[in-house]
Amino acid sequence: MSTQHAKAAERFIRNKAQEEWHNETLRLVREKRDRQALLLPCWEQLRQLASQIKMHTITHLDKYIEQFANQAEANGAIVHWAKDAREHNDIIYAILGEHQVKKLVKSKSMLTEECHLNPYLISRGIEVVESDLGERILQLMDKPPSHIVMPAIHIKRQEVGKLFEEKLHTEKGNSDPGYLTHAARLHLRNEFLTAGAALTGANFGVAATGDVVVCTNEGNADMGTSFAKLHIVSMGIEKVTPHYQALSVFVRLLARSATGQPATTYTSHYRKPRKGCQMHIVLVDNGRSDILGDADHIQTLKCIRCAACMNTCPVYRRSGGYAYTYFIPGPIGINLGMLKSPGEYYDNVSACSLCYSCNNVCPAKIDLADQIYKWRQQLYSLGKADRTKKLLSGGLRYIFTRPALYGAALRLAPIINKTPRFLIYNNLNAWGKGRELPAFAKESFTRMQEKGKIT
Amino acid sequence: MPYTHSGLFIPCYINALYPEVGVATWHLLKDLGVKPVCPAGQTCCGQPMANAGFERGAIPLLEEFKKRFDSFEYVITPSASCAVFLREHLGRTGHRVYELCEFLLDVLKITGVPGRFCHKVSIHNSCHGVRKLHLSSASELVEPPYSKLRKILSLVEGIEICEPANTDECCGFGGMFSIEEPSVSVCMGQDKLKNHLDTGAQYITGADSSCLMHLQGIAQREEAPIRFIHIAQILAAGL
Ligand code: SF4
Strand (E) positions, B24-70? Predict the structure, then answer.
């Protein structure tokens, strides 16, 4: 009765050292976040505000996105509208074609990941260079991100050392982080200098001013956009925020929630193209406006992609990003995957013990766990409910709705205690993996009561 | 006083596996002046089915529950997660459902308990207890620290109380989760158990027998030197 996630998680956990390291590393990030949050006595008010602002904005999205687009165009940017991933990719390819760009340098963008932009461009002869260090490592390894803020969190520095030896000709056996970062910088510097265009994502778009705000720690977004004459912004329509006052709430929450820093090293505001340069903003829907009409899941649009819900999730920490079949893992990924295509991504719904920690860390107060609970209810009508689970639940209900039968079951249950071990602890019994079954009491509470023993 | 006549709900797994928890709750309430009534024919609140994704299957059970408990001003249950489920799904009747510790502290406002327990215990905070019932402050939230379990245990004579590292991290039980994701569930439980063992406590105690059952299963498999006891049994120790 295992889901894809359960199977992949089992493989991940088999490498105990890796699992422990992954779990502890991300747990530490969560603790750094806690310490930062504690320093702001107004933290819970900020979360409340963030939630309200986001809810207000997405329920007035038509107004704000139009205001944003108008402002951006008034500033001199060129705005494009993409209804889905394909249009997004086509638009970007066309812009690159117009400018005869052969090499595109990118800073981190989950939206381009969502749209599969890289393979699309590469198959059309464009050289695509990721400039975020983690993303670059993964690109050289030909692997997808396993976390949305720290994409290469699952890779150890020794592996990076080996990779760089081969690809960037670094010293043999040297996996000193300082040395490797320096090597990557040298290598990327050349890419920045020779790229014809720079693509960035957008953490926020400010409707009142038309600004695009990008938060990074490496300054790679600025390196890219400072050299190339062409800047392309790939931005989901839900990223718009009314004005600077609203933005200030999110900026205070984002880095603290994400990595436990008071702010990202760089918070870059792009308002207009440099002289003689162009700035294009591609506004992408790709299913977002459908979510607007879904009362149960509209809150997912409040997400600012901080990954705090991943870092706190006890299941994510112990199963790794690749255990999830959707490209965004963890609590938010479970929900976004289901919104994208329930038939394809239902395997992730099992990856939740309903501990509700994600609800509590989320800076936008998204009801992540409640939504997962709701998906579970829907799996049944989707025909994706697990059969064993269904039988078990159905059987339990059958007994529980019949007090007499329940009483009989209670009386008979202790017999299980005498069942030979090999019958209980076999491969069919998921409970028996690493756990002993509880023993049934000789006499149930009901039985004792019937016998008048409880007075 | 209305609470002298209160309904006692014994969850299904306590009924079958840990009846002593029910018995302790019964005696404790009586000792504190509450005359509990345990209506015949009660079975399960429906939570296991609903969390697995079969909420509709839980509806008849909730109806039954309502029938049996509707006449009581207070319904008390020694299980945080059942209390949460009932409160969220039973409307008006749900608001009258209390987890045992909550009832003792918030309704009865007790300042002493009969029990005497001369052991070191490690508190097991269940997720639903912390994040739904607010039995203690949650580590994710910026709020003043508090713990109802600790507060009530500190009324017990002779007891030494401690808490594990990462005190409100999930133990991995999660109902059907424990068998649908057995590897992660066991892994989480092993980590939780280790943190409890590191406190040097002789007992692990909590307000949810379901988490304790999961941890006990792991402890037994690993032959870990620690025992498990529901908080009601400590509060009623010696009665
Ligand atoms: S759901 Fe909340 S916690 Fe998770 S990534 Fe989005 S904003 Fe962050």
Answer: 35-37
